[in-house]
Amino acid sequence: MKGSTLGEFEEVVLLATCVLQDEAYAINVRKEVEAYTKRKINLSSVHTALYRLEKKGFLSSKFGEATQKRGGKKKRYFYPSSYGVKALEEIRNIRESLWHNMPRELLKGGLS
Amino acid sequence: MNLPPKFPLKVLQFFCTEHRIEELEGDLFEEFQENVETKGLTRARFVYTWTVIRSFRWYLFDGKSRTRTWMIFDHIKMTFRAIKKSPGYTSLHILGMAMAMACSLSIALFLIDEQNKDTFIHDHTLVHRFLAKDVVGGSGKFLPQIHPNIQSVLKDKLGDQLPFVARVSSGLTTLISPENPSELIEEDIISTDPDFFKIFSYQLVLGEIDETFSGYKEQQMRPVIITERFAKKHFKGKDPLGKIIKQPTPPQFADEINKRSNWYIIKGIVQDPPKNASFQFDLIQPIEVKIGPKKHHSFSSPYAFHVPTYVKTAPFVKSEDIINQLTPLLKTYTDKHEVVDSQYQLEPLVEAYYNTNVFDKLINPSDAKVINTFIVIAALIIILAAANYINLSTVKAIQRHHEVGIRKIIGATRNNLIGRFLIESILFCTVAGFCAIFLVELTLPIFESLMTRKISFQYLQSLEFWLSFGGFILVMGIVSGIYPAISLARHRIFDNQTSDKRGFLRKSLIILQFSLSSSLIMGALIIQDQLDFITDQTSTFKGENIIVLEGWFFKEDQKFREALIKIPGVKNVSIASHAPGESINFFDRIKDLPPIALQFIDEDFFEVLNLNIAAGRNFKAFKRDGSQYDIIINENLASLLPTDDIWSYDIRTKGVDENQSIVGVIEDFHSESLKNNISPTIFLQVQRTGVQARRILIRAETQNLSKIIKAAEEVWMDIKPAKLFKYSFLDEKLAQLYTTEQRLAGVFNIFTVLAVIISAIGLFGLATHSSKVRLKEMSIRKVLGASFGQLAVLLTRPIIGLLILSFVIIMPFIFYFGNAWLEGFTYQKGLDWQIFAKALLLTLVVALITVASQVLKASLNNPSEVLRKE
Q: Is the pTM of this model over 0.90?
């Protein structure tokens, strides 16, 4: 299966980057992921994921402006690459086809 | 705005790769601010630190600068360029460092050598030397002379605790050279028991120990074991076993020559004593040859010859246990006073090395004091040199701010710069290190003669040495380079200043240097002063020399005297038991008085030594009439006697039965070292018991000294051809008493010179910097009308100020230590204010000379040239 080198956390981070569009830098990405997964994430985990995604080619990054809020340091913004979006879609397709064949009984939450 | 905790940030910055650090720092900062608002400062700091810790993952180090490792070569290139730019300066710089390294290297070598003594001895810690308190002579000192029968007592009864016991007596023997029968040789011979080999771990190369020792009977030839080097020297290549070495005898004892019991027969060859052995020897013989047959050793025998005794205990045996058992054990054998009433001691070998109170002719004790002083001073010098180096580096660095600025502009990071300067520093230290080794090779012979010990450790061939030396250079480079490196990299580009605005660090370093140098100068002066005082006191003989001949002159003393006095240039000849400068071990007691030293002299003694009779008369020619003997006492004893009328005082000493009366009083003179008090002394006539005629003192003009000595040698050969002619000068003998002090003086002098040189180098560097910096200022002053003199004064004033300040600081210490050292001398002149004045003057002069060139340069400058750029 192509694109299966995406881990669960990385997938979520990549999705968050897409959602955030032009505002995707480490702090924001973390807030999104925390909001959606309702789990506490450490900043360094987000950094790891972002950099790894970049290395694998799913993201590209650019330096933004420096602000006073960051003690005069510039931010690095991350943007999903077309390859990254494609990978996400593939994963989604795989999941959906499996879900499509799920028996009805299970969906209702019932166990025999 | 709150700042995040500094330390985690610094750690992050140190390790993080450059192209990540900014975004990471920013992210962390932003998160921190938010947390401060939502969760409070403490929580925010905690989260910050925790996140930093968790950030130590691959992406932190994922740098694009793989070129980092190869930058080292660039650094090295740069360093060479920097050196070429100011070769004089750099070489001075390196020289100072090299000297300090040479210093520490020398001490290290000596220390290692100390540790290295006798390493070939198995179970070194179990080897002990016996000492016994002197109850006969009454001096109360612990001497290494032990009754010879104690050895067999120990082996019989305490054999399980003391498996090896050996009497070891060292001496010299005169032999007829085996390969050249017309030549006499003198060799070290050890007379001992078979256990010697087990105690000191010597193996025989040829021959059998037991056969040599047990096979000896009195009328046979003397069995002897020679060393390999003796064999090589005298029996080149031929098998020496069974060969005979003869001793010389004077012609009047012609039948003695053929007496086989005076010959040596070689029964074995032993390994050479290694270079790091604490004693050396060439021959070993059974001890009975020297001290007589076994029947002479019994406790009741009056011929018992006391000798040093060494033992090797069994493991885990305590010395006190043995000592406690010893005296009761001895009491079962004898009740002889000197044996059972003596206090015994078992001294471990390691302590014996430093026991300067005991001389057993085997182990030559080192003076721990001199060694310690050596170490302390050398450590001070290293501190001096390090301070120097730091000062010089900082100063030079300031002059390179241009370079630093440009580097920063083109993008050098702080780490880059620090690394660069550290590498430079390490490189300097490496060069200095090799210079240091060169210096050490040059100066080692001087130190060896100073400490009278040769270094046996071949350091140049030891791998461990090179490894630790490499490490040492690295450490020195980093330690002395780190401050300048950091301060350099830190200061702002457009500024000429460092964080050391008012020059505090620089000034305190200079004060440190001055204090150290001046203390060393003062120390050297104090010691020299005391030494001069001593030699002044003891050498009362000007223009004339007193030659001392040593030997046993018993029957021949008058013959010698008559022959010697005929030699032209000889003023007088005296026969005595001791020459001044030798320690006197003969003591007698009068009730209630301290021990009284005994010396045997003849009627010419006082005249030869130019001493004055204070009261009464000198000895007259000796007549043995059995009723009354004349004695002379010294002023010290006279003052101790319970009566004023000493002439009729019936003087009763414990050791003398005959009637004696005092006929004269001699002025007090130092016959022993000035460190001791003058003991009360009784002078007896040497002819009473001729055995005491052991020294001949010849008073001769200095004019024809060598001729006189040659003539004396001829006289000697005439009367005593069987012994080597040995002479010495009284002045030298007296000087030997103060070897410790002389060595101390030598050490101090060398180190003082070193310290002064290093300080001068440092001062020179600082002066150069100062003059460069103030060049503009000087020019402006000149334009405004200042004279050369005024400028010079202006420039030198701060230095003088620092100098005086450091002097003031160091004076109380010198005072305290100087006095403490002088207390060791019963006779001293005390600390003279002149010493301090001299030291101050000297330091001032040196400082001024060093600074002179730079001051001149600055003061004589041409303002139009300097101010051109403005």
A: no
